[in-house]
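User: Need the bound-state model for uracil:
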Amino acid sequence: MKVRLDRLLSNTGYGTRKEVKQMIRKGHVKVNKTVIKKDDLKIDPKVEKVYVDDVEVVHETFVYFMLNKPAGYISATVDQVHKTVIDLIEGYDNYELFPVGRLDKDTEGLLLITNDGGFAHLLMAPRRKHAKIYYAKVKGEITDEHIGLFKEGITIDTGYKCKSSRLKILEANEDYSIVEVEITEGKFHQVKKMFLAIGSEVLYLKRIQIRDLKLDENLQLGEFRKLTEQELIDLKENL
Ligand code: URA
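Assistant: Bound-state model below.
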């Protein structure tokens, strides 16, 4: 995968595109042993070594981001009509990023974005039963009886019995309830269908946790950041 020299340097933290272009033009950058002054030179970071002031630039092959997904974006890499979650990850065009699993267009919250296919596969594989926690506002009053039904397994899709799930009531009145739901599967529209099955309806849905990884509260809707080393180690543990 070839990448422009100025883009590679700005993606690895050497400054904005403008700053790294200047750095290149002033002769601070070498590719292998040669000083390069062309910022649009395309190089293969797996084969060629890049140096800034004779210090080697470490290019990451795999990158991992958490995104606070806003409503209105679809969980895909490209789409002719809609904005995609990948459009929100600016500055990483050459990394062939994709979302790990999907959130509905109107769902907000924690979505992982990566280019590491093996990691994504292990995290999403249904038989691994990794927990995902959602915060939801739903129609009507949710009660302890519903907690029991969720624990037992709700039947959706004319006959599929979902695995046991944990339902926690944060607030409940006869108009609406605020709840947290923890599921270990990822069926299409699963949370929405589970509430429909008990005669309710999801009015707002936000994913707040995957395994032990919590959505960073400092991320505004549409913002993203790299996972920390520790977050990645924890997330990969026993995948
Ligand atoms: N369940 C849903 O119904 N929608 C989502 O986006 C995620 C889980």
